[in-house]
Amino acid sequence: MAGLAMIAREAGHEVSGSDAAVYPPMSTQLERAGMRLMEGYEPAHLQPAPEQLVVGNVMRRGMPMVEAMLDRGLDYISGPQWLAEQVLRSRWVLAVAGTHGKTTTASMLAWILEYAGLKPGFLIGGLPADFDCSARLGEGPFFVIEADEYDTAFFDKRSKFVHYRPRTLVLNNLEFDHADIFPDLAAIETQFHHLIRTVPGAGLIVSNADVPALDSVLARGVWTPVLRFGGDEWSAVEVAADGSAFQLFQQGRVLGEVNWDLLGQHNVQNALGALAAARHAGVPPQLALEALSRFGGVARRMQLRGTASGVRVFDDFAHHPTAIASTLSGARASGLAGRLIAVLEPRSNTMRMGVHSRTLMPALADSDWAHVLLPKDLEAEFPAAERVTLHTDVDAIVRRVSADAHSGDTVVVMSNGDFGGIHQRLLDALAARPQAG
């Protein structure tokens, strides 16, 4: 929604917005653009009456602002529909879908197109380091979008990505998630097939060859050429064990090599999808590889927040067991000198429902020690595990980690929220420790 606000502002509209909690980097981005941010969902925020309300999927019937909007007969529309009608209708849309890696892959793809001089528009659910914003209109025909399977709005229960009608579609992966919306994986597969039905025959679907659920979706029917990455047609061989260098292969022929600061095999997979999509948009693979070697990453994706007392503190958005395991595996493979300490907040609705309770602890296996924030009502959902400590408040985690961490250790904080500002609190506590000697 913040990205949509940025695009609407750039298109010449006067924009204001309400949210329950806006935090960096999105809050600072919006304020820098001169937009009025209002806390909460009060009917008073509808004064004076806007010409149109763009409604996010957090809004529900019964909320005072929603009821006031309906009672007063105000004009409203969902965010995805507004974007489709006002921006995407005349564009070559490159959409990135999947349970994990959408933000990073979409950022890679937008950067490759930018590096190639194509000046794409984009809407990304994070802040790419290579741009000063998460969304913009762009100047050329291309528009890159992070295509989310979450529902559109309280009045439109289709997945958001059904509105986007991509010409190039990247299917990164597919696992069960969003248990607050979908009863099972089959229900998510159905939404993904609705998306596939919108891709024209002259387009391209780029699909991960290692994901059986994607094969199941495609088996329901596909009317578009499919390039499967990770197989013989389009693949990568890691030159470095931590994923910081890899070679791109097309049908067994080496096209070039990437050396970058990103870690983990999951990022190599993300890159394969982005490279294939960029080629469909006309970017030569050699130029795209050169762009990726200069890719700056994305805020909150293994972002170094600081070092104190010799302890490095990273911020990562991982909030699904597969993503958590991939993040920690990449960090471990990087050859850390000290211990790897994981700090996790299971904040997503799916996590809080206990759906991943049996797979969460094994996902932390690559850490030397893990600290997990669990409210008391969730403690029984997650079984005890060796080298994992459960906490009920952030202060306890800060005290424990700052007391136990040694110089040379790495702390990876994982959450899809602000986690009570734990990153800076950890750095402050570490810096305040008495210095040895």
Describe this structure in words.
- This protein has 437 residues and is α/β, with parallel strands linked by helices.
- The protein folds into three domains: 2-74, Rossmann fold (3-Layer(aba) Sandwich); 81-292, 3-Layer(aba) Sandwich (UDP-N-acetylmuramoyl-L-alanine:D-glutamate ligase); 303-431, Alpha-Beta Complex (Protein-Tyrosine Phosphatase, Chain A), CATH 3.90.190.
- The chain has 14 helices and 22 strands.
- The strands form six sheets. Strands 7-6-8-5-11-12-13 form a seven-stranded mixed sheet. A six-stranded mixed sheet has the order 17-18-22-19-20-21, sandwiched between helices. Strands 14-15-16 form a three-stranded antiparallel sheet, covered by helices on one side.
- It starts with a helix and ends in a 6-residue tail after the last helix.
- The mean pLDDT is 88.
Structurally, the number of domains stands at 3
Tally of helical runs: 14
Q: Can you tell me the residue ranges where pLDDT is under 50 for at least 5 consecutive residues?
A: none
SSE class: alpha/beta
Briefly characterize the structure.
The protein folds into three domains: 73 residues, 3-Layer(aba) Sandwich (Rossmann fold), CATH 3.40.50; 212 residues, UDP-N-acetylmuramoyl-L-alanine:D-glutamate ligase, CATH 3.40.1190; 129 residues, Alpha-Beta Complex (Protein-Tyrosine Phosphatase, Chain A), CATH 3.90.190.
Q: Which characteristics define this entry?
A:
UDP-N-acetylmuramoyl-L-alanine:D-glutamate ligase; 437 residues; 6-stranded mixed beta sheet; 23% strand; alpha/beta; Protein-Tyrosine Phosphatase, Chain A; 3 domains; 31% helix
